[in-house]
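Narrative of accomplishments. A recurring question from our advisory board has been how the design workflow behaves on a single, concrete structure rather than in aggregate. To address it, we present the structure tokens for one chain from the evaluation set, followed by the sequence designed for it. No filtering or post-editing was applied between the two.
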């Protein structure tokens, strides 16, 4: 007979801790295997949440004098915050405008000081799951056809326009983030140093869904164009697989620890199974959906199955929506934020 095993989930000020525990004596050697499996699962979760726990520890040591992101602003820690929030919604934080990776208050004086050359044309960048606004910035890499200059800086000169970066908690429901983005952009337009005549939103992955939802909920925003880079408009197959696997494993008592582990993923991740809600936005908002595949051959079986590693082209370029579609081969999901070919296509479309 096997001993009865499970996970005890303990939520504390330092995050989520999973503890493998035995609820009875084991009577054969198979118990040791079960112990090792549960130990590995426990270790994997701890590795993911450790970054978030360390960040919150630092905040508490500093006396809790402000949000995590204002106290600890190193790239490594902020990446850990992004992962902890996206995976498990551990460190909830309000959506914010970021400049040089620091929060800018959406108030007239603060915005005027932060953007002394503010123009009336804004390009708002919305990052994807487990990311922060840092994901829009990258090192030069000629082999991957990227200059090292972010899309925002390039568009500032080529359009011209003023780039605005948004950071949000990707572990929250997409509709909640959409509502908060709609409010943030409304406040931004009201407090902006110049009269806003045009706004473009560029969202990567989940960011595109959040942007679409914001337009669905907002009214009166001067948004004229929306660019979605690798966004799973029709849902993310990987999350649907997890949902089905959880339902299947739930039929077996021995799989209970794994089922509980899967259930800890954030609401934001769970929403990816569905994709975007039906559009309800102003007709004057034009959309560009950008899809990529690892395969260099458009329409190949490999490309249709695996897409850009995370999103298949049928979802990223959802043909049921009213949008222009661009496809790129030999490119993975995260290259969509930095590749020169993608930038050139976006710039050309914005100028059309």
């Amino acid at each position: 007979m096997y001993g009865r095993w499970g996970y005890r989930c303990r939520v504390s000020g330092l995050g989520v801790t999973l503890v493998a525990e035995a609820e009875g004596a084991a009577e054969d050697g198979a118990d040791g295997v079960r112990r090792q499996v549960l130990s590995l699962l426990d270790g994997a979760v701890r590795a993911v949440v450790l970054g978030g726990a360390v960040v919150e520890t630092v905040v508490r040591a500093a006396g809790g004098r402000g949000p995590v992101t204002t106290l600890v602003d190193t790239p490594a820690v902020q990446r850990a915050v992004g992962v902890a929030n996206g995976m498990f919604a551990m460190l909830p934080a309000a959506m914010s405008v970021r400049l040089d990776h620091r929060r800018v208050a959406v108030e007239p004086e603060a915005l005027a000081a932060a953007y002394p050359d503010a123009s009336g044309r804004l390009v708002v960048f919305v990052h994807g799951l487990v990311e922060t606004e840092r994901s829009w910035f990258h090192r030069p890499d000629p082999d991957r056809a990227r200059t090292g200059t972010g899309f925002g800086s390039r568009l500032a000169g080529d359009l011209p326009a003023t780039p605005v970066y948004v950071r949000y908690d990707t572990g929250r429901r997409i509709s909640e983030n959409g509502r908060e983005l709609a409010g943030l952009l409304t406040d931004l337009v009201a407090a902006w140093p110049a009269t806003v005549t045009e706004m473009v939103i560029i969202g990567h992955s989940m960011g595109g869904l959040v942007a679409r939802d914001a337009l669905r909920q907002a009214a009166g925003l001067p948004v004229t164009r929306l660019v979605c880079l690798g966004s799973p408009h029709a849902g993310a197959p990987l999350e649907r697989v997890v949902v089905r696997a959880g339902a299947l494993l739930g039929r077996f008592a021995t799989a209970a620890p794994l089922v509980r582990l899967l259930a800890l993923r954030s609401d934001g991740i769970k929403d990816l199974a569905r994709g975007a809600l039906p559009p309800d936005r102003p007709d004057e908002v034009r959309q560009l959906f950008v899809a990529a595949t690892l395969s260099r051959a458009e329409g190949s079986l490999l490309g249709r199955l695996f897409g850009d590693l995370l999103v298949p082209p049928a979802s990223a370029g959802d043909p049921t929506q009213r949008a222009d579609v661009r496809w790129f081969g030999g490119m993975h999901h995260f290259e969509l934020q930095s590749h020169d070919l993608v930038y050139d296509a976006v710039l050309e479309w914005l100028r059309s």
